[in-house]
Specification:
The structure is a single chain. The chain has about 575 residues and is of the alpha/beta class. It folds into two domains: about 260 residues, P-loop containing nucleotide triphosphate hydrolases (Rossmann fold), CATH 3.40.50; about 210 residues, no CATH class. Helices cover about 55% and strands about 15% of the residues. The chain contains 18 helices and 15 strands. The strands form three sheets. The protein has a six-stranded antiparallel beta sheet. A six-stranded mixed beta sheet has the order 8-12-13-3-14-15. Strand 6 and strand 7 form a beta hairpin. Belongs to the RecN family. This is DNA repair protein RecN. InterPro entries: DNA_recomb/repair_RecN, P-loop_NTPase, RecF/RecN/SMC_N.
Length: about 575
Amino acid sequence: MLVQLEIRNIALIDHVSIELAGGLNVLSGETGAGKSIIIDSINAILGGRVSKDIIRTGKEKAMVEAVFQVDAERVRDLLEGYGIEPEEDNTLVVSREFNIHGKSICRINGKMATVSMLRELGERIIDVHGQYDNQSLLRTENHIKLLDSFGGEHIEKLKLEYAQALQKYKSICNRIKELSGNSGERERRIDLLKYQIDEIRKAGLKIGEEEELNKQRLLLSNSEKVLGALSKAYELLYTGVDGSMSASDGINEAIQCISTVANLDVKYESISKKLEDLYYQLEDAAEEIRSERDKVEYNPELLESIDERIDLIFRLKKKYGQSIRDILEYCEKIEQELEEIISSEEIIKKLQSQMKEADNELYALSCKLNEERHKAAQILEDRIGNELDDLEMKKAKFKVDILFDQEPDSSRHRPYNSSGLNHVEFLISPNAGEPLKPLSKIASGGEMSRVMLAIKNILANVDSMPTLIFDEIDTGISGRAAQKVGEKLSYISKKHQVICVTHLAQIACMADSHYLIEKVSDDVSTETRVVKLEGKAVDNEIARILGGASISDTTLKYAKELLQNARKFKKSACI
C-alpha cells in the first residue's frame, strides 16, 4: 500500500506531501489544477520515463519519494537480489531525484538503485490503469496465473500434481542426458574415474591413520630429546649422577634410620611404612623409565617413510576430500558412477521406459488443466462481459484465448512449462466491428481503464496487486455508467488500495478518502496544492463537481444525497 507521497519541484508543484489510506482514495479538482502531475510523479517512482521539462521553472532538480507498506514475501526475492535489507516493519521507501541535465538518482530503502530496479519493484506493488504501460494485466505471462486463480481450488490442486510430475519427468530426462553424452566424453570419464579409483585404493587408507602417523612422527623427530629426558630421570631416581646419591638410595637410607625408632611409637612405624611404599613405587617408576629409554632409537629411515605417507595423504586430501573418511566416501561414489556408466545402456533403457510413463502422466494432467481452464475461461468471459455492459461498453467483447501446444521440440519432447501445455492471453474488442486484440492494443486511455476495472472487479479476490491507480476512467461516461464505475471501484477497494483521478461526482462520492488538487496563484507564481477534505469540505467539492465554481443550494443538496446513497451502498451486504 502507498502510505505517503512527497513531491518537490515538479511542474506546478513546489512541495506537496500526501498521506494516503487504504480503501478508495479519490483525487479531484478543476481541469489544469495538476491531477496529472500526481500520476506523473507516481509513474516516475515506478521507473517510468522522466523529461527534464517536468522540473519546475527556475529549479535545478526535482524529487519524488514514496513510502509503501508491503508484504515482505511479495518483494523479498527482489530486495535480496538488489542486496537491500528489508525493514522490520515492512516499510519500503523509494525515491527518485532528477535534474535539468538529465541525470537521475534512484534509491530503495536509502540504497542506490537503477531505474530498471524501480520498474521491477513497481510491477510488484502498483498497477496504474490509464495511459501508462506498467500494468500487470498487460503482461501476458500473468494471464494464466489470474485464470488459474479464478478457476479456484480444483485447478490449483491439479497444478500441484502437475508440478510434482514435471519435477520427476525433468529429473529422469536429465539423468538420461548425463548417461548418454557423446562416446568420446564417455570414454574420457571412464578413464578418469578408473585412474582416481586406482590412486585411492592403492593408497590403502585407513580411518584414523593420519592421526597415528602424526603422533609417531612427533616422537621420532624428538627421539634425542626423549632419550635424554628418560636417561636423566632414571639416573636421578635410581643410579645417581656424578657419584651423588640417587633418590632410591636416599629413601632406602631414610627407611633404615626410621626403622631404628619405629618400635618406640606408632607414629614412627607409620612413617616407616609410608617410606617403604614410596620406595617400591619409585622402583616401579624407575623400571618403567628404563624400559621406555631402552625402546627409544633414532630411525631416520622410519621417519622418512612416515613423512612420505603423510605427504601422500595430504595430496589425496587436496584432490578428493578434507579427510580420509571423505576420500573413501568419494571413492565409493565414483565406483558406483563408473559401474553405472559401464552399464549405462541398460540403465538408459530403464530410464526411457520411466520417462515414457512420466510423459504420459504429465500429458494427462496437462489435458485436464486445459479442460478446466476452458471451463473457467467461459465463466470469466461471461462475467467480464456483464461488467463491461454495466460500464457502458455494451459492444465490447472479452475473450480468453487458450492455446494448447503439444508439438514436440527438436529433442522430441513436448514443450511442458511450469503451467502445462497452455498459453493464455486475454483479448478485447472494445467496439463493434473491431477484431479481438491484446489488451495492450487498446488505444483509448478511458477504454483501457474501464476494461481493467471490469477485469479487476471480477478478479478482486484472486489478484494480489496491493495498489491500483485508475486515471482517465471517467472519460466518455456519465450518469448510470458513472455510478456503476464508482460502485465497482468501491468494491475493489475492499481488497486493494485504490487511487482514482476523477471529474465525476458519482465516482468521487464513493471515496473513503478525498483529496482536492487545486491551483493557487498570486502575482509572482502559480503552484499546485493537495488538501485532504473532511466533513463539509467533501460536500462542497462534490457540489462543485456537479455544478461548477458556483455552488447553489440545489447542487449542495444533490451532493449530500449522492454522498448519503454512497454511504448506504458501502454498508450494504455486497461490500
